[in-house]
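1st attempt posting a full record on here, be nice pls
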Amino acid sequence: MSATATAPAATPRDSAKVASTNMIGTYVRIELVRQLRQVSNLVFMVGLPLMLFLIFGAMQEYSTTELPNGNGNVSASIMVSFASYGAITATAGLAGSAAIELQQGWGRQLGITPFRGTHFLISKTIVAMVLALLPVGVIFLAGALTTARLDGWIWVACGVLVLVPAIVFSLYGLAIGTLFRSETAVGAASGMIVIFMFLGNAFMPLSGFLFDLSPFTPVWGVMQLALWPLQEGTVLSADALTQYELWQPITNVVVWGLIFAGLAALGARRGTSRR
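the predicted structure (as tokens):
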């Protein structure tokens, strides 16, 4: 005598979970299309870093100068720096706009659907990382077609290390979005990234006080981690080479990540307390 097993019927909670998972894919697709249609965002995220790389990294006499450790040349170093700039701009801008959308009532509308706030943040994170891939892919391709030279595995290592530490600037965008709750403030915060890049010794070799200050600025750690496979901690100032240890950029990224996360939590708490 044999018994026939039957599958348990799907509960409403299971159906809602499947629906919300499907909605993440749909939302990511729609949001990507929407972001890619915003030409101004693409200009600052991809076009500007690409143009700066071609001018300062591929069209100068020093571009093909080899780095002291032989892992690549100066053009490759500048390529990684401007790819990081594009990735940071993408993650910060999208995270800031997500915070603004939630505080302008979009979160309450999501609350009446299976698509919860957690799904919204997951979807925005996926979109941010896909958009951050754009400047990295475009600028690395431009480098490969012009004067950038890196040893084989360093292409992949630098590409990954451009993307992962840039997540810190999604916290920066969230902090600005939750504290100021203004699209203008988020736009100004994206502009501030240019200043952070200069202070972080990313756009041009600094010297004196500014060079000594650079390890304490937000972009420095992110940039040095992205460049680590290529430069191995060697940083060029205006007049000398300086050697850093790996713990220094890691500490910088962790500290600034905690600062931005704390500011984002403070902004979210202020927004909640006023409701």
